[in-house]
Amino acid sequence: MDTTLRITSARDGSSFVAQIEKISDQKLLACYQCGKCSAGCPMAAHMDVLPNQMIRMAQLGMREQLLATRSIWMCVSCLTCNSRCPKGIRIAEVFEALRRTALRAGQRDDHLNITELPPEARRVLPPIATISAMRKLTS
Amino acid sequence: MKLAYYPGCTLKNQATNFDVSTVSSMAKLDVEVEELDRWNCCGTVHALDSDNVMNRVAPITNMIRVKEAQAKTEGMAGEFMTSCAMCYNTLKRANIDVKQRADALETINDFLSLENIKYEGDVEVLHLLEYLRDRVGFDNLAKKVTRPLKGLRVACYYGCLLVRPKEVAFDDTENPMVMENLISALGATPVEFSHKTECCGAYQTVDKPEVIADRTGKIVGSASEEQADLVVVSCPLCAFNLDFRQDDAKRLNPDFQNMPVLYFTQLMALAFGCDESALRFDLQHIDPLPTLKARGLA
User: Fold this and answer.
1) B205–A117 CB contact, under 8 Å
2) Which residues are within 8 A (CB) of B170 and not within 5 positions of it... i.e. 6 or more apart?
3) Among B46, B213, B271, B288, whose Cα sits 20 to 30 Å from the Cα of B114?
4) CA distances (Å), origin B21, targets B145, B168, B263
């Protein structure tokens, strides 16, 4: 039986990698997995996948797994990771690109419905909180 | 000289204490502050996607309002001041962005074609702390203090928006000192604490208050460990999380010690001898009066 082994740069998920790199304007392959982003992340305790792991998965084009994480909705763009990355990668921009990908896709995967909040919560919350949450978590 | 002032939405709602203390303090410093006509939302959180132009429209519209104010006001420069850290950050980043992306600015100007003025990247965004340090000077500011805040131990909390990203920061990213220097000029004692630039959890407060309870517990807790009397902030979102979410922090950890959270402008107004109408301590969730009374300041 003849087997043909073809070596090519094209692989599953490569268009997703290109999309994330374009929206975030970052070079994912620059990451060498030092883990500094995850070490300083104030939201890491509430994430299911750590920021450095997210970058690795993004390099590998793991679209479905990434878009299903709780992590992309926990990141609040505090930019601690960006300011400490020794490779100058803006990790928060990559998270934003992932959020946007989820929100721009056909099903518009909103992660907040303001009208479902109890009236008491809506009364005390300042506009700076509700507007910023809607900006980040809804399409 | 008149200084254009951008208050932002929350200073006209829950955080009127931040607004009145800003305006009153500036009057004491002989800086004539004029609120912009028809200012609109700053954009509330800078969008990080590189292809985003739409979210820059709101901040850039405000730049046009500044140019309008400048055109009709003698002695007004092409700059404006805001005391809200979120507004500062969002407006400044949008401004930097359009200065670097001529195509995005052109798209925005096309979108705003009904405006009488085109924006050309010629307005500067200033934060009040930056203005006080660089234009007024803390030595001059200290001369206006009539009620020195002697003995008051203050934890200066910066959060994210004043120090990140680097292009927006007007002080060191990891160890800023501008607020401590202001607090010292007011006669109080700034205390060092571990969490001064740690994020409060921001808008997660809307539907995940349990996350904020954890953050507030750690941030205010680290100020408690250094025997701070109170925390000062420059962001109404940090203020809400650190002040109003202390009840949740206490539920999470019964050992948590409540601590008042004030805007830096309230301490300034207090030190300048402004009356209660300029302080509005009644809007604080954790009442600061017992702490201030204990220090002979109320």
Assistant:
1) no
2) B127, B129, B130, B133, B162, B178
3) B46
4) 15, 24, 8
B156: left (phi over 0), alpha (psi -120 to 50) or beta: beta
Residues in chain B with CB shorter than 8 Å from the CB of A82 are: 164-165
B280: left (phi over 0), alpha (psi -120 to 50) or beta: left
Predicted confidence pLDDT, tens digits, chain B (298 residues): 799 999 999 999 999 999 999 999 999 999 999 999 999 999 999 999 999 999 999 999 999 999 999 999 998 999 999 999 999 999 999 999 999 999 999 999 999 999 999 999 999 999 999 999 999 999 999 999 999 999 999 999 999 999 999 999 999 999 999 999 999 999 999 999 999 999 999 999 999 999 999 999 999 999 999 999 999 999 999 999 999 999 999 999 999 999 999 999 999 999 999 999 999 999 999 999 999 999 999 8
Contact in structure between B123 and B63 (CB atoms under 8 Å)? yes
The CA-based angle B131-B133-B136, given to 5 degrees, is 70
Here the tokens at position A34 are 């030092």
The span from the CA of B270 to the CA of B150, in Å, is 12
B191: part of which helix (H) or strand (E)? strand B189-191
pLDDT, tens digit, 9 for 90 and up, residues A22-77? 999 999 999 999 999 999 999 999 999 999 999 999 999 999 999 999 999 999 99
* Residue keyed to tokens 């292809």: B51
ipTM over 0.90 threshold: yes
Contact A127 B166 (CB under 8 A): no
Contact with chain B for residue A42, Cβ under 8 A: yes
CA geometry: angle at B180 spanning B144 and B238, to 5°? 105
Nearest to B26 by CA among B160, B126, B93, B123: B126
**B10, B42, B46, B50: best to mutate for the A interface, most A CBs within 10 A:** B50
Q: Which two tokens stand for residue B216?
A: 């507030």
Q: How many CB atoms lie within 10 A of CB B177?
A: 15
**A-chain residues within 8 Å CB-CB of B235?**
128
**Residues of chain B contacting A93 with CB distance shorter than 8 Å:** 48-50
B124 — phi, psi (to 5°)? -110, 140
